[in-house]
# Entry
Amino acid sequence: MERKLEKQTVSQLLLAVLCLLSATMSYGQQRTFKAGAATTVITPYLGGGIVGNFGIPPEAKNIHDELHARSLVLDDGESKIAFIICDNIGLARKVCDAAKQEINERTGIPTDHILIAGTHTHSATSAEGEGPKRRGWSQGEPLDRYQDLLATRIADAVDMAVYRLEPAKIGWGSVNIPEHVFNRRWHMKELVVNPFGEKEPVRFNPGIGNPEIVKPAGPTDPEVSFLSIQALDGRSIALLANYSLHYIGGVPKHDISADYFAVFANRMQELLLKDNTETPFVGIMTNGTSGDINNVNVQGKSPKDAPYQKMKFVANDIAEKVHRSLQGVKYQPWLKLQAKQSEQKLTVRKPTEKQLALAKQIFALPEGAKPINHPLERTYADRITQLQNEWPSEISVVLQTFRIGDLQIAAIPFETFAESGLALKAQYPKNKTFTITFANGSYGYLPTPEQHKLGGYETWLGTNRVEIEASRKIFGTLTNLFSLMN
# Structure
């Protein structure tokens, strides 16, 4: 009888141990972290207009460097998130929606776990529509030829990244690089006239050495935040960085180029892989809250850089400083991934009767006539007329938040001011937080209400299209989304 009880006890102990081992193995499997990254070429067709500046867009005649969609997919065993950053000035929401739907059908990644953003290179043709359609309202219309190609190639990039998923470890950090960022909005000694005949205290890009400047109208954000992913053997899989710098430029007018964003990515590959060119690696630079930030020091000397020289200098300098900061990063073998999304409704600004009356006067001027108020008044007469005739009274935009362990990422579909990004960082002193802009659509500038009062290009109707309180509403929605994550 005793032997029978002993056998029964041993059997029970063995069963308990087996159950514990099974549970431990299952738990370990659930906590396997994986990552994959890939790129696809999204260079547009030649012949289109290179957008990003005023006037008639110059024809794209030369490809200086290919444009890419750069994807990063993370998998914590329970959920996946995908980031895709495209070398383009800005993507229409319908392009992002089409790409997300295709990604979901191919990979099963939920559409609200996918972030698609543009870098804001000013040397590419439009992904928001050709000609006047770029600034119009075309959300319900079919994709044009390039938009269709772009959506497919974005989905391809994610598909490949999923195929390349492998066990990985992840870490992050940041480094301050203040010498490349300058607020481009300046208080002037005298009020300046805008295209609507109104006087305002602030001018954007007042010119190097302008004796009328007084002080910058806002801060800069010097922080370069970065997310580094390595395979378990220490190979670098990807590095995603974020810097609040608009773009660099210095590109011949007929050239297609990805600007400093791509130079940074390529330099990171050189630094991390050295001569190991066969190992896949994806470097990514995302655009932060740079709506009022550029690389021009108006209190300095006029540059004498050759084409592409300044962008290479800036990008290489950032890459080398990020590379040095990587030495202090602590990598973790597993982190929980979370994503939240919300549709934010915003009222569209419409022109006043006075502005519309002025537009009619401007349209009636003979060709070559002297402007009534401002050299750009015809451009803004066109823009506000288009806003009045084509845009709805209210729009809904996608806002997203992601959490990777203690790291937080926000996504906004506007050219957002640095002070908004800084405010979001200050809201979470215990979390590394940064914002990716031009994400999931492109709707123009997003000044704060305080900056609206100062005027300037970024606040003009036609440059800014949504209600003056929009930045505050977006801030509230993002903080609420972050609060829903545990």
Summary: The radius of gyration is 25 Å.
